Amino acid sequence: MPRSARFRSAGVDDAEQIAALHADSWRRNYRGAYADSFLDGDVEADRRAVWSARLGGPANSETILAEQDARVVGFVHVGFDDDPRWGSLVDNLHVTHDLRRMGIGTQLLRRAARAVAGHGADNAMYLWVLRQNTAAQQFYRALGATAEGTAPVSPPGEDPARLHGAPLKLRMAWPDVTRLPLGDHQ
Fold it and tell me: Would you say residue 186 lies in a domain?
């Protein structure tokens, strides 16, 4: 079992590592929904621009990192009060491939729930997951989420050429994050 991760809030200096992890996760898990030309091309530059902007001027949001030996091994980003019905949006939750199923994702989601309970107008939280990503859906359901409808995937950078066809995403929702079955372990 790997050494425990350390968790902290992200800063602008973390954009590069977050972007690299985000791009790797997309390359591994978003094939078939995102165009191969995008995933095999400029996805890391795209993610670097997004994360540099997001962390350079955070507004009503929080990004939490998981680190091991100064290496970012996971992250979660929450936008507070994103939707009047569904609450705060978990916009991203990714864990490095070699440490999946080690509890880091659960810990990140637990910290996101705590952040929502402390900063959101209410305790509701939701996220979008690719319809094809059944492993992630199973993970969220195990943590108390319910599926609450589908929508078309928005293309990265609003460039439709970055999508493959017309993929769908599924909303996973928690009406009250204080009831998430996440346990008390670190």
Answer: no
138 within a domain of the structure (yes/no): yes
CATH number, position 160: 3.40.630.30
pLDDT tens, residue by residue, 58-104: 689 999 999 988 888 899 999 999 999 999 999 999 888 775 777 78
Give the β-pairing of 168-174 and 87-95.
unpaired
Query: What rounded mean pLDDT belongs to the chain?
Result: 89
Q: What is the pTM of this model?
A: 0.89
90 within some domain: yes
Q: What is the Cα–Cα distance from 74 to 14, expressed in whole angstroms?
A: 12
132 located within any domain: yes
Provide mean pLDDT across the span 175-179: 90
Total domain count, the chain: 1
Query: Which tens digits make up the pLDDT trace of 37-66?
Result: 999 998 989 999 999 999 988 689 999 999
Domain that holds residue 165: 6-179
Angle between helices 15-29 and 43-56 (to 10 degrees): 140
Q: How far is the C-alpha of 66 from the C-alpha of 96, rounded, in Å?
A: 10
Chain CA centroid to CA 31, Å: 17
* b/e 66-87 (16+ beta carbons within 10 angstroms → b): bbbeeebbbbbbbbbbbeeebb
Angle (CA) 19-170-139 rounded to 5° is 70
